[in-house]
Amino acid sequence: MSHRATMDDLVSLRRDLHRHPEPAWREFYTTARLVDELETRDLDALYVGPEILDADERMAVPDDAEIDAWVERAREAGAREDVLDRLAGGYTGAVAVVERGEGPTVGLRVDIDGLPITESEDGDHLPTAEGFRSENEGFMHACGHDAHATIGLGVLDAVLDSDFEGTFKVFFQPSEELVAGGKAVAEGGHLDDVDYLLALHVGLDHPTGEVVCGIDGFLAVSHFRAEFTGAPAHAGAKPEEGKNANLAAAAAVQNLYGISRHSDGATRVNVGLMGGGTATNIVAEEAFIEGEVRGATTELMEYMEDRAHTVIESAAAMHDCEVEIGVEGKAPSARSDDALAAIVGGVSEGVEGVDSILDRDDLGGSEDATYLMQRVQDHGGLAAYVGVGTDHPGGHHTRTFDVDEATIRIAVDVLAGSVERIAADRP
Amino acid sequence: MSHRATMDDLVSLRRDLHRHPEPAWREFYTTARLVDELETRDLDALYVGPEILDADERMAVPDDAEIDAWVERAREAGAREDVLDRLAGGYTGAVAVVERGEGPTVGLRVDIDGLPITESEDGDHLPTAEGFRSENEGFMHACGHDAHATIGLGVLDAVLDSDFEGTFKVFFQPSEELVAGGKAVAEGGHLDDVDYLLALHVGLDHPTGEVVCGIDGFLAVSHFRAEFTGAPAHAGAKPEEGKNANLAAAAAVQNLYGISRHSDGATRVNVGLMGGGTATNIVAEEAFIEGEVRGATTELMEYMEDRAHTVIESAAAMHDCEVEIGVEGKAPSARSDDALAAIVGGVSEGVEGVDSILDRDDLGGSEDATYLMQRVQDHGGLAAYVGVGTDHPGGHHTRTFDVDEATIRIAVDVLAGSVERIAADRP
Amino acid sequence: MSHRATMDDLVSLRRDLHRHPEPAWREFYTTARLVDELETRDLDALYVGPEILDADERMAVPDDAEIDAWVERAREAGAREDVLDRLAGGYTGAVAVVERGEGPTVGLRVDIDGLPITESEDGDHLPTAEGFRSENEGFMHACGHDAHATIGLGVLDAVLDSDFEGTFKVFFQPSEELVAGGKAVAEGGHLDDVDYLLALHVGLDHPTGEVVCGIDGFLAVSHFRAEFTGAPAHAGAKPEEGKNANLAAAAAVQNLYGISRHSDGATRVNVGLMGGGTATNIVAEEAFIEGEVRGATTELMEYMEDRAHTVIESAAAMHDCEVEIGVEGKAPSARSDDALAAIVGGVSEGVEGVDSILDRDDLGGSEDATYLMQRVQDHGGLAAYVGVGTDHPGGHHTRTFDVDEATIRIAVDVLAGSVERIAADRP
Amino acid sequence: MSHRATMDDLVSLRRDLHRHPEPAWREFYTTARLVDELETRDLDALYVGPEILDADERMAVPDDAEIDAWVERAREAGAREDVLDRLAGGYTGAVAVVERGEGPTVGLRVDIDGLPITESEDGDHLPTAEGFRSENEGFMHACGHDAHATIGLGVLDAVLDSDFEGTFKVFFQPSEELVAGGKAVAEGGHLDDVDYLLALHVGLDHPTGEVVCGIDGFLAVSHFRAEFTGAPAHAGAKPEEGKNANLAAAAAVQNLYGISRHSDGATRVNVGLMGGGTATNIVAEEAFIEGEVRGATTELMEYMEDRAHTVIESAAAMHDCEVEIGVEGKAPSARSDDALAAIVGGVSEGVEGVDSILDRDDLGGSEDATYLMQRVQDHGGLAAYVGVGTDHPGGHHTRTFDVDEATIRIAVDVLAGSVERIAADRP
After folding, report:
1. Does D260 contact B261 at a Cβ distance shorter than 8 Å?
2. Which Pfam families does this chain map to (chains A, B, C, D) (predicted)?
3. Does chain B have fewer CB atoms within 10 Å around its N or its C terminus?
C-alpha cells in the first residue's frame, strides 16, 4: 500500500527543498530527498540521474570540482549515500512510473533546480520569518521549483489514490533555469511512449485561484559562449605583435546587436556577460562573451543563431583571433494543444479555490519543457503547459519571491484531476 | 641648333600651364604644350603617352567618358590634334632624351598634374591679379607642378647648352597627385639605364633661396577602394532579407581606425570617402569606402595594408556581403643618397640667390617619385629628391597656393649644375 | 450641371497621369490636370496647393532649383499657366468640396505622387505595350497613385450623381511616398469638420475582386537625416587636427542598429543612405546618414526615434563633431474603425465584380493617411483605410507594377456606395 | 660608526628581497627589511611610509582587506612590528638622508616593488636552483627591483665611506610597476632641495658590463579605469528597459582604438581588461574597461587622454549609461640631462667590469621616475636615468627573468662614483 502525503507533509517537503536550493545539474540533495519520498510509494519503476536522460545532450555541465563541492554539500545536509552514488558524475533528477491497467500513458513534468540569487533576509519575507530561508547562501528557490517538485509528488499520490487507468510518469527534470536539461530528458527514452504530457508553472504574475489552461508564447532560445584567443603583446613596446581578443569581442558585441529584426515575429539578442585581458599594458590574449538569442518561433531563434555565429566568427577574423563558440543552453518554441487545455479548463471549474480560468496566455519567456512537449507532439501525442496562479510578493527571479502555499493543493487537484480525465477521455 | 628658352619664356610657359590645370591621367593639354616646346629642341628621342610607361601598372585610371571630356577640353584650349592622337586611350606625360657622347645616364623627374581645387578669386592672389588664374574651373595647380614642368624644360635647355657628357633624360610624369603614375613610369623601361636620378619639389614650406639637398621621410602609401555588395530589402516589410552593405561599410570604417599602432614607426589610416544606399526604406545593396594607409617605411605601409584588407573582408563577411578591394594608388618609402645630395649642396653654394642650404629634411607626406628612385637604386644607381624653396602665400593644396617665379631660375641653376657635376664626378 | 466621367474617361485620365509621374512635392502636372477636370464639376469649393495644408508642417521639401525644373517640365507637358501660378513655391495637391444639404461631412483621401523608379520597357508591360509608359524617364507610378487620383474623381462624380446628403470632400494629397505630406494636410484645416474619412489603396497583393474593409497594422515611421560636421585635415601630415565626420557617421550606423528590440511589438531601424568625405587623403569634414525608424505603434516608433537621436548625437560627440538631425518624413500608426469597415463590407457585397470581402488585413508598412485618420478620430470622428484588390503583375515599387483597370470601376462603386451609406446611417 | 655591507651581504639581501616580492603599495616586508639595514647606518634622517609622500597623490591604492592580508604576510615573514605600525594604512617605501658638510644635495632613486607573475620552477632558473625562489606564490621580482633596492643600500654605504661633501638622499620608491607611486613621492617634499637626481634601472636588454649614461624615450602614460552603470532588464521579456552597460563598454573599446594617430610622434592606446554583466539573460547593468594611453611626450599622452575620455563618456551617453573614469597610474615623459650623463660616462670608464658605455638609449616604455626627474628639473636641477646592464636569461616581466649579481657591484661603483663626482663638480 502506497503512502499518501497530507497537505502538511507537502508543505513540509516544500520548505525542506526551499532550504536547500541547488543550481542546474547540482540538484543532489533535492533528488535524494525526492527519492526518499518516492521509495515509500507503490511505484512500478523509479529512474534516477543517468537513467533518465541522454548524457550526450546535457548542456552547461559544471566542471568536476564544482560538482564534487555540491555533492559534499548534499551529503552534509543529509542526502543518502546510496542515492548520491547513483548520481555520480553530475547526474540529477528522477522519473517515477506507475502502471494501473490498460490505458494511455500520461506524463507530468516538473522542474527542480534553484537560482544563484541571495535570498532576502527581511522579516517580511516569509521563508525568513518562518525559518526556512535558504541554507545554501547565494542560492535560492526564486522561481517556485521547490513547489513544482512538491506538487509533482502530490499529483503522484493523488493519481495512485484514484481510479486512473493507464500509465502515469512524473518527470522531475533538472537544469531548467539554464535551459540545459530539457533536451537531454526529452531524448532520454522515457517520453517516447507518452501520449499526453502536462507541464506546470506556478505564479507567472497570476494570483492564487487563477488557472491558465494552456500557455503559449514561448520564445525559443539559444545560449552561446564565445571564447576569443589572440596573442598577447606589450601595449607600449610592441602593440603590433598583439592579436587583440578584447577588440574582437567588442566588435562582436557591437555587431550582434545589429542583427536585423525579422518580419516574421519577435527576436532577441543579448550579450549578458563579457570579460577579457590580464593587465592594462598587455594586449589581451583572451576574451569571452556569453549571451543568448531568442525568437518567437524556433525558426526565428535559428535565424538569430546563424547570424550570431557569422558575426562572432567574422569579428574574430577581423582582429586575427581564433574563436570557439559553444551552445550552453537551448529550447525550442512550442504550443499547448487545445484538446488538453480544454480538459484542464473543465477540471479546474470543479476545483475548490479556483476562481478564474484563462484559456490561454503568453509566457513571453523561454522554457525547456518545450523540448519534452515537442517530443510528445512529434510522435502524435498532445501536450499542454499549465499555469497555476500564486500570490507571489516579489517577482520571479527576485530576492523576495515566494509561493503562496495554498497553491500546492489547488495545483495538485487541477493536475491530478486532469490526468484522470485525460486517461478516461483520450482526447 | 636647339632653341633655349629665356627666363621670360619659362615664366610665360609656367603661366600657360597654370591656366590649364589637368588632374591625374588627364594632362592632355599639358603634354601637348610640352611636346610643342620639346620638338623645337635638339633631342635624340621624345617619347609620349603610352611609350613612357607600363600600361598595366597605371592606377586610378578614369573612365572613358571622363577622359574624352578632358581630351575635348584640351582640343578647345588649342592642343595639337596629332599629339592628342598619340595620347589616345588616356595616356599622358613625356620623356625627353639627349645623348652627348660618352658618360653616365642622368635623369630628372618632374610631375605635371593639377588638383581638384577651386582657385582663389581674391585680388591678392597673384594668378588672379595677373590674369593667369585657372581656366578649368574647379581645378588648380595648387602644388607647383606647373613650375616643375617648366623647370624640367629649363634644365633640359641648360644641359644642352653646357659641356655635359653622357645621356640626359627628363621624365615629365603624369598622375602624381593620386600616387597613381609613378609605378607605371618606373616600370616603363626608360629608367633601366639611368645611373643617377634627381627629382624635384618646390616649396614645402621652405622660402625662396633655400635648398634641401636630399629629402627623406617619405611615408609609403597605398590607396584602396572597397566596394561592398549585399542584397536590398524593404526595411519595413522584410528587413531580414537584406544584406546590409551600409552596415558592412560602417563596421569596416570603425575597425580600420582600430588597426594597432606599430612600434617600428609612424603609420596612418584614413577613410576619406564613403557612400552607400539608395533610399531610406531600402536596406542598402551597395556601399563603398575609399581611403589610404601609410607607413614610415614600405614595410609599415604593407603591415597596415594587410591588416586593412583583413578588416574589410571580415566586415563584409560579418554582414553577409561580398567585397572587392582595389588599389587606386601606391608609393613606397625611399631615401636620398648622400653622394648625390652632397653634389647638390656643393653646386647650390655657387648659385646666385641661394642663401640657405639644408642637407636633409623630412617630407612627412607621400610621393610616387619614390618608385623611380627605388628603381634606380635597385639596379645600383643613386637618387636624390631635391627641394627648392619658394615663398608660397597659401599652403600646398590650398586655394591661395602660388609659386614665387624667382624660384624657376634658381631651380634650373641648381639642377642643371648638379646634372653636369654628377656626369663629371660619377659619384 | 456637373460633368460625369465615363469609365473610358477615367481610364484615359489614369493613363495620362501614368505618363506623367511626378515625385513628392513636385506633382505640378498632376495637380493641374486634376484641376482641369474638377473645374468642370459642380463644386462648392476647390482648394489647391498652399490652400490645402499647413506650410510649416511640410517635410522633405526639395530645393528651389529642383522645384523649378519640375514646374518647367509640367509646363512643357501642357499644364495650365494659371494653375501653376497658384502652386508657386512648391505646393501641390487639391481638395474638392461639394455640399448637398444637411448631413455629415464625409471625406475621401487619395494620394497622387509617383516614385523615382525607371519603368520597364518590356513588351509584356502593358503601359509600354499600350503606349502610356512614363514620359518622365527615371520616374514611375509604381504604386498605383495614378489610379488613386482617378478613382477620387470617379467617386466625386458618383456622389454628385447620387442622393447623398451632407458635405463631401475629396483630398488629393501630395507627397505620400516620402510620408512627407500627410501631416501638413492633416493640419491644413479641411479635416477639422470631417466626421467620417475613408482612405484608399489598390492592390497590396490582393487580386481584382477582393475588398479589405479596414486595413490596420500600419507601422508608424519617422525618416531622419543627420549631417555631421567635423574638421578636415591632411590624413598623412596632420591627422590629429581632423575631426572625422566619416568615423562619427560610421559609429552612428553601428550603434543605431543596436537599439534594443521592444517587448511591446515590432520595431525597425534602417540607415538607407550614407555618404561623406572628399578625398582619400583628407580626414572627412562632412558626412551624412539618412534612414528611418518604425514601430508597430506610434509609441514604439517614438521610442526608436528617441534612442536614435541619442545614438546619433553621442556618435558625433564621440568624434568631436557637430550634428544636425532633421525629420524628413513621419507617420503615426492608426486603426480602422469597425463601424466604417462594416459599412464598406455591406456595400461591397452588392458591388458587381467583388467576389471576396476581408474584414481586416495588416498593411505591414507605413502610410501617412494615418495622420488624416488620427485627426478625424481625435475629434470624435471615424476613419477606415480601404483596400481594393487589383491584379498587379509586378510587386509594388517595382519596374513592372501595373494596375488592372477593372479595379477603377469596382473601387468607385465600393467607395461611392460607402460614402452614401455612411451619410445616411451616420454610424 | 656606520656599518658597511660587503658584497656578500648585498647578495644576501638581494636574495632575501627576491624571496619576498610584494606588489605595489604592499611592500611591507621589503620596507621593514630595508629599515632593519638602514637603522644600522649613520643616517641623519630616515623617513618611512606616510612621511615620504603626498598621500593624496597615491594612485591605484588597494582596498583595506588586500592591504591587511599583505601586512599579515609580512608579519609572518618576520617584519618588525614597530615598522609595520609606522606603515599603517597602506604606506610603504623609505627615504634615507645623510648630510656631510657643505655641498649640493644629490638624490638616488630606486624602486622596490614586485609583479603579479608566477616565478619559474625550472631547475635552470637560478633562484630556483639556489633556493631563493619567491615564497609569495604568484608574485615575483621579475624586473630587478630587488637588485635596485640592494644597490640603493650599497651606494649609500659607499658614499658614507667616501669623501663626499653635501647631502645625499636615497629614495626607495614604492609602486613603480603601476606607475602609481612616483607622483606621490615627487610631491612629498623630499625632492624639493635636490639639486641632482640619478635614477637606476638594471638590464633593459643591455649585458653585464654595459652602462647607458642617460636614458630617454620614456613614453608618457596614463592608466584609466572606466566603470559603466546602466540598468538591468530581462533580455527576453523587457529588453527595452535595460540600459546596456556591456554595449556601452564595447562601443568605447571600438572607438578608443580609433583615436587618430598624431603627427608629432608615437602614441599608444590599449584596453587591457574588460568585463561586465551577470547572466546571459540579463541586460548588463555594470561593465568596466581598464586600459592605458601613452605618448612620446607628455603632451601626446594628454592628447590621447583627452580624446579617450571623450570617447568613453560619449559611449556611455550613447547607450544611456553613466560612467565614472578614474586615473589609476600616470607618468610623464622626461629627458636625461647631458651634463649628468657625461659624469656617469666619465666615472664608468674607471669602473672595473665596465666594457661598453653608451651615451644614450631609448626606454621605449614608461616609468614614473619621470615624475621625480621632472620635479628636480622644474626647480632648476639636473636629472639622469642610468642603465646598468645585466645578463638576464628571460626578458623583463617574464617567469625566467633574473639578475646577474655581478651587476650589483658594478652599479654601486658607477653610481657612488657619480654621486661623489657630481657633488665635487656641481655641473
Report:
1. no
2. M20_dimer, Peptidase_M20
3. N
Q: Are C295 and C303 contacting, i.e. CB atoms less than 8 angstroms apart?
A: yes
Residue A291 has pLDDT above 90, yes or no: yes
Distance CA(D63)–CA(B20), nearest Å, equals: 72
- What would you measure as the largest C-alpha separation in chain C, in angstroms? 80
- D366 reaches A (C-beta below 8 A): yes
In angstroms, the CA B64 to CA C340 distance is: 61
Contact A239 B255 (CB under 8 A): no
* Structure confidence at residue A90 as a pLDDT band (50, 70, 90): confident
- Shortest distance between the Cα of C200 and any Cα of chain D, in A, equals 35
Beta-bridge partner residues of D46: D96
Contact B274 C270 (CB under 8 A): no
Report the alpha-carbon distance of residue A325 to residue A315 in Å, rounded: 12
- pLDDT at position B2 is 65
Residues A164-170: what's their mean pLDDT?
97
- Is residue C145 marked as binding? yes
Q: Does A30 touch chain B (CB under 8 A)?
A: no
Sign (positive or negative) of CA dihedral A58, A59, A64, A68: negative
Q: Which residues pair with B303 in a beta bridge?
A: none
- Interatomic CA distance for residues B142 and D342, integer angstroms: 49
Chains touching A (at least 3 CB pairs under 8 A) are B, C, D
Angstroms from B234 CA to nearest CA on chain C: 9
Tell me the average pLDDT across B216-235.
Answer: 94
- Between positions 269 and 298 of A, the ones with CB within 8 A of B are 283
pTM of the model: 0.90
The whole-angstrom separation of Cα C316 and Cα D142 is 44
d(CA D267, CA D297): 9
Chain C: closest CA distance from residue B245 (Å): 10
**Cβ(A292)–Cβ(A221) under 8 Å?**
yes
Cα–Cα distances in angstroms (integers) from residue A125 to residues A16, A121, A133, A204, A398, in the given order:
16, 7, 9, 19, 12
CB spacing of C258 vs A254 below 8 angstroms? yes
- Produce one character per residue of B216-237: b if its CB has 16 or more CB atoms within 10 Å, e if not: bbbbbbbbbbbbbbbebbbbbb
- Asked if residue D18 belongs to a known ligand binding site, the reply is no
Which among B411, B364, B393 is positioned nearest to B119, based on CA atoms? Answer: B393
- Domains of chain B (ranges; CATH) run 7-218+334-425 (3.40.630.10), 220-331 (3.30.70.360)
Q: Could you tell me if C410 lies within 8 Å of chain D, comparing CB atoms?
A: no
| pLDDT at position C365 | 84
Query: Among A253, A269, A282, A362, which would you mutate to test the D interface (most chain D Cβ atoms within 10 Å of its Cβ)?
Result: A253
Sort out which chain A residues have CB atoms less than 8 A from D244's CB and list them: 257
The answer to whether D258 faces chain A, any CB pair under 8 Å, is no
Query: By CA distance, what is B270's nearest residue in D?
Result: D260
Strand (E) or helix (H) holding C287: strand C286-295
Q: Is D177 annotated as a binding residue?
A: yes
Q: Are the C-beta atoms of D241 and D276 separated by less than 8 Å?
A: no
Q: How far apart are CA A51 and CA A92, in angstroms?
A: 10
What stretch of H or E contains A412? helix A406-425
Whether D238 contacts chain C with CB within 8 A: yes
State how far the Cα of A211 lies from the Cα of A384, in Å rounded to an integer: 13
Q: Is the pLDDT of residue B1 over 70?
A: no
Neighbours of D45 (CB within 10 A): 13
Instruction: Name the residue among C261, C268, C364 with its Cβ closest to that of A267.
Output: C261
pLDDT tens profile C254-271: 999 999 999 999 999 999
**Phi and psi dihedrals of A54, rounded to 5?**
-90, 105
